[in-house]
Amino acid sequence: MNIYLDNAATTQVDEKVLEVMLPYFKENYGNPSSTHSHGRKVKAAVEESRKKFADLLGANPSEIFFTSGGTEGDNTALRCLTKKYDIKDVITSCIEHHAVLHTVDELESCSNVNKHFVALNESGMVDYEDLEKALKDAKSSSLVSLMHGNNEVGNLSDIDKIGSLCKEYTAFFHCDAVQTVGHYSIDLSKTHVHSIVGSAHKFHGPKGVGFMYLKKGCDIDPLILGGSQERNRRAGTENIAGIVGMTKALELCIQQMDEHKDHILGLKVRMIKALRERIPGVVFNGCSDDIENSLYTVLNISLPPSEMDNFLLMQLDLNGVSASSGSACASGSEVGSHVIKSIKSCSSSKALRFSFGRYNTKEDIDRTVEVLEKICSEKVIS
Amino acid sequence: MNIYLDNAATTQVDEKVLEVMLPYFKENYGNPSSTHSHGRKVKAAVEESRKKFADLLGANPSEIFFTSGGTEGDNTALRCLTKKYDIKDVITSCIEHHAVLHTVDELESCSNVNKHFVALNESGMVDYEDLEKALKDAKSSSLVSLMHGNNEVGNLSDIDKIGSLCKEYTAFFHCDAVQTVGHYSIDLSKTHVHSIVGSAHKFHGPKGVGFMYLKKGCDIDPLILGGSQERNRRAGTENIAGIVGMTKALELCIQQMDEHKDHILGLKVRMIKALRERIPGVVFNGCSDDIENSLYTVLNISLPPSEMDNFLLMQLDLNGVSASSGSACASGSEVGSHVIKSIKSCSSSKALRFSFGRYNTKEDIDRTVEVLEKICSEKVIS
Lengths: 382, 382
Known about the structure:
Two copies of one chain form a homodimer.
Chain A: E1 3-4, H1 15-21, H2 37-56, E2 64-67, H3 70-84, E3 89-92, H4 98-110, E4 114-117, H5 128-137, E5 142-145, H6 159-168, E6 172-176, E7 195-199, E8 210-214, H7 229-232, H8 240-255, H9 257-278, E9 283-284, E10 298-302, H10 312-318, E11 321-322, H11 338-342, E12 351-355, H12 362-376
Parallel strand pairs in A: 1-11, 3-4, 3-5, 5-6, 6-7
Antiparallel strand pairs in A: 2-8, 7-8, 9-10, 10-12
Helix pairs in contact in A: 1-8, 2-8, 3-4, 5-6, 9-12
């Protein structure tokens, strides 16, 4: 099997995560909304998970709502906050995930919301002065939607700074934290944010489950209607195995965060160094090679332009390396990355995203650089 | 552990279902939207599942969309068909699941849709003449939303008849088939229905995954935005293990449908007979004791009124029987069942729903009737 360097698209489920999920596919099969013993047993599992999950993020259990994933979470937070609080101005950036951008577009066309894109610097970092100006200029109730870590180039935003600005100008702050939950320490008791969302499969949990944090006092109507689950915020029978698994996944991530970070950052630094040495003309897109300002899990590069540009991922794949051109969610479409296009300093050559995880090794990196070097010298083994 | 007679709330995952899911929590962990080998492997699994799932329902693979469950499916079909086709009249019934009723209420309040409740006969069966009248009277594009099998009392609708009427009057037909998929033979190549939804955990699949069938030619925009998954109809990384598991669950159900039906119907008939013999004054709510017109999986009864009325489920639970008062989705709320209240012939005493599955035995039934008899004679063992 290929070397897997696409951990920003999805991660391998941790064995310990699967282990805690199994009883909920077997003997503990009740519906948590049922009041009998079969139901109570799983209800307890959901609520214990909620408590543990909240503790791990510095939140209150009543602020955690389980969803089917990050995309549903972004849709719910943005649409339901906008509706409930009659938001008229949404300030976001053009390099957000489509789960945010497409939802904001819909709010613009169907709910008369004004969309404002905050300026980005050459490397795609949020221009905080421009954000402040936009907040000042907003004529009515406004909402800022800015992601924590960019899924394509890895740029990290300072969510404490954004939160403070939002607080100063009484704006709502929604944060897509899909790439950072489980990888960065997030303390929601300190950060001023109204909603954040995450997805289990990005931090070694299962696919099909995520969460939405909704700050105490924020009162939304559900996006998905039809039952009193999740305290009337999200109808539908709970994905118990998923919820229990996601909670275990977050617990494992947080317990070993420093260790994982050291290991993964080491791999990223090793790759940057090797690429600089062995591939003259390599471009690091966004802030990818800026250790402080980018995700330690993501490295986005462009090779020197060549006639191989459109076949790079295929060549990598044929040579045993799974990488991506950017967001997996957009890879079905033939248009290029909206993120790369929006960042001035990005190369015009095809971008390659390598994203690292706890199961990667130095050997994975060395082999990958070797393959890239061969591709560049057109001595491709296929 | 209790005798489990709440299979309409959720069912135990079949061992063979879990078996096919496991590789997608382990080695096959890619994101199906990724183009490399890890991604292609799971993409193939999703598309093979779609093909198999479609075949089992007489549909085309392009008509099947995977969702997070029945509730999301009802929300999507109703809201997106209404929006796309500018539906102005929705004809439904007051005994639909809340996933339908609450969604229709929202369409009424936010999208200027007129809601019309079709008349029901004394037992809660759809009055087809009244449905035809409503279709005739509809002034504009209309949509009929009627469920296949009622989750509380078990009443079965004739979806072929409803489909024919909708065809005659060029109305859209949405059907919540959550209680019948996997339990009844459904051939979508023959039934005139625009959308149906189902949920895996109601037919021995996992929780957190369902499907929406959308007839070829129906073109909706997605409810959940942000990615090109499910051919642009439902954004978000696919729950592969869930999708593979749901497909296996449906396959097993359909392979052994007659055998399961004989067994489960035998249990229901045994319970009806025993209750009639041993509990004078027992009332069968809706069409519950009408074998032809109700789900073979559901029996809804009321015991003769007594001061124990509010403690029946607790008494059953204490005596080792897991049953329910109706919909699990509404059990968190303290208001009584909207279904029981809407059906004239239903007893005013507390309703008890017993719902049977393939793992139940005659002994489960005999023991349950024994407990009910004891409760009625107030000689309750606790």
